[in-house]
Amino acid sequence: MKSFIKTLFFTLITLSIFSATSQNTNKKLFNKIDSYLDASAKNGFSGVVLVAKKGEVILSKGYGWADRKNKIPNSPATVFNIGSVTKQFTASAILKLVEQGKMKTSDKLSLYFPQIPLDKTDITIHQLLTHTSGISNKTGGFRYNEASKEQFLKEFFESELHFKPGTTYQYANANYIMLTAILELVSGQTYNVFLQKNLFEPAQMKTTGYKSINFNTELLAHGYYYNRDDEKWTDWGTTQQHLLYNNNYWYSIGKGDIHSSIEDLYKWHVALQNNVVLTSKTREIQETPYVAENDKMTSYYGYGWAISKSHNDAKIVAHNGSNGLYFADFVRFVDDDVVVIYITNAFLGPESENVAREIGKMVFDTNYNATPISRNIYELIHDFMKTNPSANADKLPNYLNKELKDEFNDPAILNRLGYSRLKKEDQPDWALALFKLNVKLFPEDGNLWDSLGEAYLTYNQKEDAIKSYSKAVELGSEGSKETLQELLKEDE
């Protein structure tokens, strides 16, 4: 008896030490991630992040504003547009119908659309799910333009395939819009109703859906973008203001524009883990790496998920998405039982796409420290222009390298800003200075010399314009030839 009590005592002590160590480790990880995001928020980052490990939520927090005008901060309950993270829900809905015995992934489109054109007859559900149908990534219009289901189907059927179905991977939103049309045909329900009843309600997700809102609208995050022409951040509003509640938005449905919160997305993750919505066999089918997404074969596409391996060869199941303003990333390190969910409503630049992966590095490497997201590059340049005369343009690259903590190497940035300023400046100033700086930084780009020539012409500096256009033609800018010839004729 004494031996048992002694063993129990030491067991409890060991568990207590282990628990304390685990709590201390998680606290350190929280502080590291939170510091990275706080520093990013000082540079304009706005969004939400949830990190969980082995069933314990380590961080669930909002940064910046959901609504700047009304001073409503982002929080774990804030609802965002999740972009193409939507595709996993569309794929799960299709697989739910498969579980119900109402369809198969091997079904061909001709089963659902008897009058389908011959070249698309044998496209299968599997090929739509894996983006191997051959359909162009340009099929379908702008997401917030009105289009009926019939209009989309007509465009899909009349479009030219880019390759034979089943032979090549090409990510195309039209695949998932078509899956939605089939889902509604097979289920007899609208996309929104089917997902609510079969996915979101079983997972206890209260603020997730396509267009439908039955919660406080103050939870909706506004999307913000930096307007290059106005030189300020602009409120785009919410998705629901651009996506009206009717059945005429078939360029949007199924492939993107579901709204959700990190709280709800974590509930979805738990529901998948616990086979609440789909069986373990179905989840395995969904997370199978069917087709390589790139030539290096480092990532594969499953059904609404991208599958890859971590540095230690552990499985990662993830998907990101964006509508150009919001950006979402849902990364599940399934072998390590870690999930990182991230959404932003103010896209600062390419670094905004790497937040979830940077956090993942911090989770698995205690020595890794992520560099905070830099301010929007257009905002940085405008700030420099406000505090410097155009004669100081040559100092701009060093300023950007310091602020971005990386070498500035994108010629399109200065070109866009040059044209933006050209509309505003009657006399040579920053517009001309930006174009001149750009050709100095990237002297082998004929398009930039063409832009500089256009700026010189705007300010009636014909001789310099001819030199610039001549350089553009020398570097292969075909569009510059006609303008150059006209200028030379004028001098004859």
UniProtKB/TrEMBL annotation:
<dbReference type="InterPro" id="IPR019734">
    <property type="entry name" value="TPR_rpt"/>
</dbReference>
<dbReference type="Pfam" id="PF00144">
    <property type="entry name" value="Beta-lactamase"/>
</dbReference>
<protein>
    <submittedName>
        <fullName>Serine hydrolase</fullName>
    </submittedName>
</protein>
<dbReference type="InterPro" id="IPR050491">
    <property type="entry name" value="AmpC-like"/>
</dbReference>
<feature type="signal peptide">
    <location>
        <begin position="1"/>
        <end position="22"/>
    </location>
</feature>
<dbReference type="GO" id="GO:0016787">
    <property type="term" value="F:hydrolase activity"/>
</dbReference>
<keyword id="KW-0802">TPR repeat</keyword>
<feature type="repeat" description="TPR">
    <location>
        <begin position="446"/>
        <end position="479"/>
    </location>
</feature>
<keyword id="KW-0378">Hydrolase</keyword>
<dbReference type="InterPro" id="IPR001466">
    <property type="entry name" value="Beta-lactam-related"/>
</dbReference>
<dbReference type="InterPro" id="IPR012338">
    <property type="entry name" value="Beta-lactam/transpept-like"/>
</dbReference>
<dbReference type="InterPro" id="IPR011990">
    <property type="entry name" value="TPR-like_helical_dom_sf"/>
</dbReference>
<keyword id="KW-0732">Signal</keyword>
<feature type="domain" description="Beta-lactamase-related">
    <location>
        <begin position="43"/>
        <end position="356"/>
    </location>
</feature>
